[in-house]
Request: fold
Amino acid sequence: MVSPIFSSVTQGIRVSVRSVYSPDESSPRHNYFVFAYQVEITNESAFPVKLHRREWHIVDGIGSHRLVEGEGVVGQKPIMQPGESYQYVSGSHFSTAIGQMKGFYYMERLTDGTQVKVSIPPFVMVSPYLLN
Reply:
């Protein structure tokens, strides 16, 4: 089951996310639920930008919180010119059949070095087992 697209814009940077349940990697009877998510970052601003860091806030169905921080995304620090997009796929696991992620990308405007904290919209991941 593929989720709807969740999207937000911060200072001309659009972040759109959609998730999908991964049944082949999950084991519901062992309380292990895996989701993939696809992110598209679009530079709708007038300035070239570079993504330097990410910060994810991950909450499962019982309220347990994990913080994941690091350099770039999937080993990359993409540069996006005005009008360009960058896409990647990653994943997360939960001990519950539902969870939520949200966060921030820390980017730099390359023309003047301005730091931009870009919001990643909250998105929910739901196992199809909860919908039956």
